[in-house]
């Protein structure tokens, strides 16, 4: 495959955009080489600026669960745009999408729309702090909740001690209020709570982790968190930016039958436009301005184009009763195919899957948390990534991302993908 035009465009971009990209993970830093510039996409396929075609397993990092340029979403945006693109005043469509979202998701009464998943998570912890009057939060090593200061904290000095910033610019003052715990380790969470009694507002978690590869919660782990939160008066925040409207209509809350106190959304909820949201029961949401004291705002929040795209997306997800089952079947089909060819090629691997999220880890042992995820062989992943690219399969340029399965994928596409994995790993 030739990437001449992409390379030239990247060189041009690098001069005026830091690293040539507007979000770091788009650069090929972890895998080497230069990023591919997209020209257009339709359904399951991406077409780049050099005329190459790829089967897409990123799908804009999750939103395009029905495939690219899905007609009802595109048409809704076009029709809305003709009537004005932003007013900064209330519009009926905001209530429509809010009503639909609230009806699809368990245990929420009210929802507020923002412009990104980052904003949703950042606002959710502010709300939790305002509501409980406590400052500290617990997050899990390896979970991603967007790029706001409180979340850019890495493990390192142990879970019970203060987190340390992993990005310059995050102050020690902020870092000390973020406590780190180990994913899938309820005893560890207990000890973090016990060491900080009376100071913690909330626990925030990706109920299925998707930012260290796909890592399912161990049986009873989420229920364990729910119980600990109830026992100690903490709010449980599910960051469902990735899992919301993907694993089920009601996301992970529905799939695992656990109620969170605040839920964050992004990705799918915007149908590919910049949308995030956070939601909770009435008594918590009423703490937000203008009803309550916790301030949160946005000039473009609830933007009509974004709401039109999101509404068209949610309507399809709500009406197509077989969609989530179909997605899970396609993903299970891939899982089975990958296992077969990787075993044939004697490639050490672990595959994790929940619903339409799946990841291949080039690691011998089970991958259950951050520590076990980083044990995967990154050199193998790099070869795998570039090999798959040559075969016309686009996966995330990082070993720590899940694959996002879309309904636009046909079984032919899946077979082609399994054949590509077979061919690429046969050379390892
Ligand atoms: C993508 C993601 C975010 C951040 O959303 P942005 O829209 O990129 O700001 C937050 N949490 C999770 C779980 C995500 O996957």
From TrEMBL:
SUPFAM superfamilies from the UniProt entry: PLP-dependent transferases
Needed cofactors: pyridoxal 5'-phosphate
Keywords: Cytoplasm, Isomerase, Porphyrin biosynthesis, Pyridoxal phosphate
Reactions this protein catalyses: (S)-4-amino-5-oxopentanoate = 5-aminolevulinate
Single GO MF descriptor: glutamate-1-semialdehyde 2,1-aminomutase activity
EC number(s) on file: 5.4.3.8
Residue positions where N6-(pyridoxal phosphate)lysine is found in the record: 267
Predominant place of localization: cytoplasm
EC top class, as a word: isomerase
Metabolic or biological pathway, per its Swiss-Prot or TrEMBL entry: Porphyrin-containing compound metabolism; protoporphyrin-IX biosynthesis; 5-aminolevulinate from L-glutamyl-tRNA(Glu): step 2/2
Entry annotated with the keyword Transport: no
Subcellular location: Cytoplasm
Self-association state and partner proteins as the record states: Homodimer.
Family note: Belongs to the class-III pyridoxal-phosphate-dependent aminotransferase family. HemL subfamily.
Protein name, UniProt field: Glutamate-1-semialdehyde 2,1-aminomutase
Organism, scientific name: Gaetbulibacter aquiaggeris
């Amino acid at each position: 495959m030739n990437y001449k035009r992409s390379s030239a465009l990247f060189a041009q971009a690098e001069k005026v955009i830091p690293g040539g990209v507007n979000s770091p993970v788009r650069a090929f830093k972890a895998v080497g080489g230069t990023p591919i510039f997209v020209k257009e996409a339709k359904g399951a396929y991406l077409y780049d600026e050099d005329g190459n075609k790829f089967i897409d397993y990123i799908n804009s990092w999750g939103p395009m669960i029905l495939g690219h340029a899905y007609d009802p979403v595109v048409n809704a945006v076009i029709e809305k745009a003709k009537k004005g693109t932003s007013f900064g005043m209330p519009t009926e469509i905001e209530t429509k999408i809010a009503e639909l979202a609230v009806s699809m998701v368990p245990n929420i009464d009210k929802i507020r729309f923002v412009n990104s998943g980052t904003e949703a998570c950042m606002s959710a912890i502010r709300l939790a702090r305002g509501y409980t009057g406590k400052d500290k939060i617990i997050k899990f090593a390896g979970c991603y909740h967007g790029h706001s200061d409180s979340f850019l904290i890495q493990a390192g000095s142990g879970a019970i001690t203060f987190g340390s910033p992993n990005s310059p610019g995050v102050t020690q003052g902020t870092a000390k209020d973020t406590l780190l715990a180990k994913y899938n380790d309820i005893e560890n969470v207990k000890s973090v709570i016990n060491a900080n009694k009376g100071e913690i507002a909330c626990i925030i978690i990706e109920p299925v982790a998707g930012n260290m590869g796909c890592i399912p919660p161990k049986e009873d782990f989420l229920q364990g968190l729910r119980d600990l939160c109830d026992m100690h008066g903490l709010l449980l925040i599910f960051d469902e930016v990735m899992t919301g409207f993907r694993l089920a209509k009601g996301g992970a809350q529905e799939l695992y039958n656990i109620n969170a106190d605040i839920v964050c959304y992004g990705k799918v909820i915007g149908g590919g436009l910049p949308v995030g949201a956070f939601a909770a029961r009435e008594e918590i949401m009423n703490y937000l301005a203008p009803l309550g004291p916790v301030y949160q705002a946005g000039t473009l929040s609830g933007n009509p184009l974004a709401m039109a795209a999101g509404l068209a997306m949610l309507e399809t997800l709500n009406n197509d009763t077989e969609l989530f089952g179909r997605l899970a079947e396609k993903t299970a089909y891939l899982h089975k195919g990958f296992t077969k060819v990787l075993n044939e090629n004697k490639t050490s691997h672990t595959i994790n899957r929940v619903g339409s999220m799946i990841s291949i880890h080039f690691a011998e042992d089970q991958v259950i948390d951050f520590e076990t995820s980083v044990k995967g062989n990154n050199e193998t992943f790099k070869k795998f990534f570039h090999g798959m690219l040559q075969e016309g399969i686009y996966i995330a340029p990082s070993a720590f991302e899940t694959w996002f399965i879309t309904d636009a994928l046909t079984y032919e596409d899946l077979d082609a993908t399994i054949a590509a994995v077979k061919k690429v790993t046969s050379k390892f």
